[in-house]
Amino acid sequence: MNRQLIDDVRASLIADGTIPNMDLTRKQVAFETENVHAFVKTMFPRTGISLLNHIETLYVSGVGYQTYHNDRHVTSVLQGVLDYISQYQADPRTVRLLLLAAMFHDAKHTLGVMPDRVNTALAVGTLKPVQYLGALIPQCVDHIANYWLSDIECNGYKEHTAFLTELMELILDTTFPYNDVCAPRYLVGVFRDIDRLTIYRPDWYDQIYSGLYLESAAPKSIAFVDYCASQVNFLLSLEVYTLIDNERLSIAIRNARHVLQTALSIGGKS
User: Fold this and answer.
1) How many CB atoms lie within 10 A of CB 182?
2) How many CB atoms lie within 10 A of CB 43?
């Protein structure tokens, strides 16, 4: 019944113009994917293709059926990085940190089986160099390691270790619920915004209200309408850190309220 309600709400949102039809959505998603992949290859000219292939492998090897924490979510967050740097100045090192955080932050996600602190610990575990300086790249050999160091503009092991340490800290700081003693550093706040507000993407309904619901809420027998209400409350509780994301948040809250009202009018507590 919940799956039918998801489909019925989607149809209603398409009919009233809240979301595009599915053909247009697919085209927009394909454009985003092509766009972010091209940018990754630009920022990592020697290792970008290997890096993207590695990411694809990581996000099909988690626990269970990944309907949200998958390569589409990664693409959404990568696009969020591009949106951010189109509005704010960022040096190349910061851009690479954000891109890599987007790619690795949900790797090996347990899909609601374990607390989020376990998820982020598993994610950073995929970053720890084991044998080679370029251990982010699978089947790494010496020349790939050198290419990797060149791509991230690190001069030797010490700088590489510092870079990876900052990247791992950035990912760990996305652990939810947040446990901040004081305001997080700016880059952490930016990345949290980028990660949480994928509801701004063209397929936001399918990501949040189908993918995330089926992955994390449906297995716990949470009704779709109750899940929709929790999304409104979640968005109302958010603190954002950049102007662009205050604008996004207003849109997201409006959309979430509309989804809830639509679900209530169509199916009630299915």
Assistant:
1) 5
2) 18
CATH architecture of 2-267: Orthogonal Bundle (1.10)
Q: How far apart are CA 95 and CA 88, in angstroms?
A: 11
Domain residue spans of the chain: 2-267
What pLDDT is stored for residue 154 in this prediction?
Answer: 82
H-run or E-run covering 13: helix 2-15
- Residue 6 tokens read as 């998801």
- Could you tell me which residue, 270 or 16, shows the higher pLDDT? 16
Nearest partner of 101 among 87, 117, 80, judged by Cα: 80
Residue with tokens 């950049």: 242
Reported as a pLDDT band with limits 50, 70 and 90, residue 240 is confident
Nearest residue to 73 (alpha-carbon basis) of 32, 43, 114, 21: 32
Q: Is 70 in contact with 54 (CB distance < 8 Å)?
A: no
Average pLDDT, integer, range 212-234: 93
- 34 Cβ partners below 8 Å, 6+ apart? none
First to last CA, the chain: 6
Residues 93-145: pLDDT tens digits? 999 999 999 999 988 888 877 888 998 998 888 876 543 444 555 444 445 56
